[in-house]
TrEMBL record:
<feature type="domain" description="Glutamyl/glutaminyl-tRNA synthetase class Ib catalytic">
    <location>
        <begin position="30"/>
        <end position="339"/>
    </location>
</feature>
<protein>
    <recommendedName>
        <fullName>Glutamine--tRNA ligase</fullName>
        <ecNumber>6.1.1.18</ecNumber>
    </recommendedName>
</protein>
<dbReference type="InterPro" id="IPR020059">
    <property type="entry name" value="Glu/Gln-tRNA-synth_Ib_codon-bd"/>
</dbReference>
<dbReference type="Pfam" id="PF00749">
    <property type="entry name" value="tRNA-synt_1c"/>
</dbReference>
<dbReference type="Pfam" id="PF20974">
    <property type="entry name" value="tRNA-synt_1c_C2"/>
</dbReference>
<dbReference type="InterPro" id="IPR049437">
    <property type="entry name" value="tRNA-synt_1c_C2"/>
</dbReference>
<dbReference type="GO" id="GO:0016874">
    <property type="term" value="F:ligase activity"/>
</dbReference>
<feature type="domain" description="Glutamyl/glutaminyl-tRNA synthetase class Ib anti-codon binding">
    <location>
        <begin position="342"/>
        <end position="441"/>
    </location>
</feature>
<dbReference type="Pfam" id="PF03950">
    <property type="entry name" value="tRNA-synt_1c_C"/>
</dbReference>
<keyword id="KW-0030">Aminoacyl-tRNA synthetase</keyword>
<keyword id="KW-0436">Ligase</keyword>
<keyword id="KW-0547">Nucleotide-binding</keyword>
<keyword id="KW-0067">ATP-binding</keyword>
<dbReference type="InterPro" id="IPR050132">
    <property type="entry name" value="Gln/Glu-tRNA_Ligase"/>
</dbReference>
<dbReference type="InterPro" id="IPR004514">
    <property type="entry name" value="Gln-tRNA-synth"/>
</dbReference>
<feature type="domain" description="tRNA synthetases class I (E and Q) anti-codon binding">
    <location>
        <begin position="460"/>
        <end position="534"/>
    </location>
</feature>
<keyword id="KW-0648">Protein biosynthesis</keyword>
Amino acid sequence: MTEEKKSLNFIEQIIEDDLATGSYKRENLKFRFPPEPNGYLHIGHASSINLNFGLGLRYDAPVNLRFDDTNPIKEEREFVDSIKRDVEWLGFKWAKECYASDYFQQLYDWTVEMIKNGDAYVDSQTSEAIANQKGTPTKPGTESPYRERSIEENLEIFEAMKNGDTPEGAHVLRAKIDMTSSNMLMRDPIMYRCVHKAHHRTNEEWKIYPMYDWAHGESDFIESISHSFCTLEFLPHRELYNWFVNKVSKPEEFQPKQREFARRNLSHTVVSKRKLAQLVEKGFVESWDDPRMPTISGLRRRGYTPTSIRNFAESIGVGKRENMIDLSHLEFCAREDLNKTAPRVMGVLDPVKLVITNYDKDEEWLEAENNPEDDSAGSRQVPFSKELYIEREDFKESANRKFFRLTLGKEVRLKNAYIIKGEEVVKDEHGNITEIHCTYDPLSKSGSGTEESKRKVKGTLHWVSIKHAVAAEVRLYDRLFTVEAPDADKEKDYLEFVNPDSLEIITGYVEPSLKEAKELDQFQFQRIGYFCLDQTSSSEKLVFNRTVSLRDSWAKKQ
């Protein structure tokens, strides 16, 4: 039987068609991932990273990491460093690290030639006047009174703009295309504006900065990018992209090709960098890498693995229509990977004291399997003693037949340990249970091979020995927003939908082996969920973040 051939997505089909028609040769394929360093990357960028670098792997083609750093007002070195860290963490390597700012001189030189050829001019109107003259989709624009400035005057003012001799906002440079075009982006778009602010790489060298549409296609051309993939909102920009590239290239030269794919929106969050920045600035989250944020750094800190994020991006694919992906799918990808890789440990988050009244040893150490999904994971020793913590919800004084945990007069197994039987409880003056007393069967030790150890009981509980327990701060994270699409309601501010219960901090108790855990180490707290050690953790105070619960609990809440 032949192996079923994987079907191509429409992006891969475009490339295959270009190769088949000879438009591009396989050895000329080159891709790029072009983030603007004005914020941290989020889960949407992860899909773009996976697409572009995945194509590089599929076609054995180089992929550049290019920073579209043309706006010094919003861009910072911190964001550059975070983007590089995220791409590397996801497991990808770029062929060349590039910056649009590398090409500022070339872009300027090309612009001067365009002015000389009558393809660009300096407009001295206000931004409001320029906007008013743009027209509407059904009404053509009107030409600027400065559109027919002489070449000499345009060159003189543009040079003054470059040198910082003109105030910000006094002039812009516009391409001279067609103010009656049905595509409003072709109505003499702005190519340069004056910004008197230091750039994170070029410092004070430039006082003018290119607009995205002018810099992006030319950067692709300079780097010989074969296929420039971007999201669907840039579809109307494709005509302008081609117009600009044609102005600086010759017909026989290698031409980059822009094509668009649809965004995949994630439920119960926002991915606008501006809105994510507001969440940080207004204190709804503590930072860009807050584990509730959809940023790659936030997901990493929460305990997501690179594999889980790549699998998520691969599973949702690329399409031509925008759609909403439920956050539960991302959580499923995390569970699926962590189930294979995360060591099993024991932690109790809502403890109640359990006393084994007939246990007469000081302590003993029991063998516990690290991961039943991984034969190479081995085992560890966990301490056992007379007094244990178990989860409060794992006990009821009396219960129906469907309750398979501990109750008076019935038996359960303690994980990796013994079978116990509930005998009595101790309560405080308010009637709250403070202790559960039980007896154990000393011959029922797990793995001992005795007949008693093989006895079947319906419930198994996790536990922690009190004398060995290590207190830990446990952060239980939930969805950041209470509704699926928080920024879809045009009548309300998306911040109104922030979930006030997106973080609960409790004190839990974990087995002593976790004192050796390192930052971002991931674990399955048995019967509870997946957790990782937070970066704020220390030897004096362990801090764990819940990545995801063991099962999807959100659907039940809904």
